Amino acid sequence: MLTQETARKWIDLFIEQILENKDYLSELDTAIGDGDHGNNLARGANALTEALQTKNPETLPDLLKVTGMTLVSKVGGASGPLLGSAFIGMAKASQDNDDLATVLEAGLEGIQKRGKAVAGEKTMVDEWIPVVEAVKSKTLTSAFIEETVEKTKDIKATKGRASYLGDRSIGHIDPGAMSSSYLFKTMMEAGVY
Ligand code: ADP
Ligand code: MG
Ligand code: MG
């Protein structure tokens, strides 16, 4: 269930996952990008820890908004503003809705409004679209989350830095899809789903 309490646990677990997997995320980004994805998100994770401590947002929309604003403003690179836009979209939707699928859908819309990526371009959107669908149909499992990331290997990148590689981007996992998979796995762990 999506409440301030479960969402706070979710974000805390996500921060932990990002910091634990910082090097791995940057490694994935070294293969098809500029090698900074883990470092970018780790900077965001640390800024988020501080922002949540100082601002201590007490409602669900405020919590999601502080998270989004912090990611947009503190993470260099494409991923910060994109993931930040997801949280800002979720914050707005959560003002009058506590249905997880609806809130996540607004998050996906936030990413796509900002980054213009559609399905099949080898971005985090290729993780978000199937996961949002699975949440809607109540079929999400952690195995599904993992399979979805794995599938980004087969895609040729047409958005973001990886698109500069053309066919050579095939065979590699998209780093942003991997970090979004941490977001969804921690969502399950926190009992939001
Ligand atoms: P940068 O590419 O600026 O160094 P990061 O390395 O932090 O930023 O993030 C790269 C990730 O951002 C990619 O793996 C991809 O998932 C995601 N990404 C890049 N461009 C877009 C876009 N237009 N829409 C959605 N996601 C994108
Ligand atoms: Mg990068
Ligand atoms: Mg970069």
UniProtKB/TrEMBL annotation:
Pathway: Polyol metabolism; glycerol degradation
Keyword hit for Manganese: no
Keyword flag Transferase: yes
TM region(s), chain numbering: none
Catalytic activity as recorded in UniProt: dihydroxyacetone + phosphoenolpyruvate = dihydroxyacetone phosphate + pyruvate
Molecular function, one GO term: glycerone kinase activity
PROSITE patterns on file: DHAL
Subunit structure: Homodimer. The dihydroxyacetone kinase complex is composed of a homodimer of DhaM, a homodimer of DhaK and the subunit DhaL.
Name listed for the protein in its UniProt record: phosphoenolpyruvate--glycerone phosphotransferase
Organism in which the protein naturally occurs: Carnobacterium viridans
Lineage: Bacteria, Bacillati, Bacillota, Bacilli, Lactobacillales
